[in-house]
């Protein structure tokens, strides 16, 4: 089978200006480009090799087309066989490159004079980077710049048409791309090829990038009420400001599709004039949301928004893809258009790196310069409109760290979700502690948990308050301060350790008492981000701290928790029941045959 000339041209240094009418002419043109005499001994070998490379490129393009067209029809064993055959070819191609290194390196070394310029230019990394392709973890490509092939390839790279050429690490970096591909695979599974991700240096940078891509001056934004405090601030103090984008914020207090639809209709009526004048409505929701871990009915909200042609952005940080994969809904109308994660939390896992990501359909994320797709121009997609310009990229070191952390996401989240069941029930056993957590069957949000979250597990973030005990503020503060070291006194969430914060004294301290109450936050509200520890130790620490600081002002407080024996039994029951549930939901061997 003769390789298609058009497919082969992509490999030419004159890919955009070539006059070649055959593979052989392509190879000759290449030699001319580098001033090589094709009749010389060296030239003949280079010519023959170049011809083979053009043929291989042509064949591989056909292989891609055929794979895309037929893969779904193959049974699993054939797909395994094809995977391994192609995988082996990757090694063969790398081996070719490795074999080329010897003559290439010799030519390079022969050019060095006595005043060797290695110390300024550095070595020639191309030589030594080849085995790095086989590194079992993504390679940390810690570089600002990249070596280019030739002018026409660089030109293509600048127009987003040459994926093998990163231009500058602020724009594209292989380690960051590795992570982006991994999160898309995790979120989207078999449909991963329809989605793309861009990584940012924090969750907030990802959210800001998405909002600045979506919003235009004077637009309307429906926002779920309980968004992370930083997002609240970004919206109020920047996007809504008249001297900035003058975005009209419309707060959504409910959780259901019906409530959302009512709010949307009201907003459409109230802002009819602005909408007629060109203002568009956008939807930004966080689910599960801060600080109570409450779930919104995301599929129903997306359906309602999409009926009106509105785009929905979802911050799904708290659930992580372990609990919730909104982009895998069969009905596309139920999928958000963008999913955001703060990698800083459970996906990274350790809290050692701040990072974030936006995931969306291919055409919303990237379109080659000059092209359009699905009604969008290239300059409207997230990459060119925002990412390329603003510079909030994720560097290679942090991308690597998040990627490594992601590998243990399943294990960590499983433990955390079970621990959430344990800890929420432990607190709920106390008659003067109100637990705002959908892990409890009696909680109004528990139906949505069951409908939407994997294994019906709860989000590992919830709140408790002690208003019923009418504690003196000083005693509550002493109790709260005594929760270290079993609980971490830290502002973040989603780390391996359990962390507490008091929203009324920290993140929500600027809200008025009425606004706090509307947000279900009271002076004694404690937000708990559940970790992977042994819950017995945490429960014991709560009892000891209550003995020290609450019993003197509220006699008998510490005795009103469930007994130590009961707590042990409850924890064991949740662990056994949850693991049984997971085992029962395991895919079977036959599912994979
Ligand atoms: C739900 C949620 N989204 C986004 C963010 C912001 O992420 P980052 O801290 O990585 O900027 C946070 C931070 O706490 C969060 O809790």
TrEMBL record:
Cofactor(s) demanded: pyridoxal 5'-phosphate
- Gene Ontology biological-process entries: transsulfuration
User: Its GO CC terms?
Assistant: cytoplasm
What Pfam family does this protein match (any one)? Cys_Met_Meta_PP
Q: Which GO terms describe its molecular function?
A: carbon-sulfur lyase activity; pyridoxal phosphate binding
Q: Which UniProt keywords apply?
A: Lyase, Pyridoxal phosphate
The cross-references to SUPFAM superfamilies, in alphabetical order and at most eight, read: PLP-dependent transferases
Q: Does the keyword Lyase apply?
A: yes
Superkingdom of this entry's organism?
A: Bacteria
The reply to whether Lyase figures as a keyword in the UniProt entry is yes
Which InterPro entries does its entry note? Answer: Cys/Met-Metab_PyrdxlP-dep_enz, PyrdxlP-dep_Trfase, PyrdxlP-dep_Trfase_major, PyrdxlP-dep_Trfase_small
The record's similarity note reads: Belongs to the trans-sulfuration enzymes family.
The protein's name = Cystathionine beta-lyase/cystathionine gamma-synthase
Classification from the root reads:
Bacteria, Pseudomonadati, Pseudomonadota, Gammaproteobacteria, Cellvibrionales
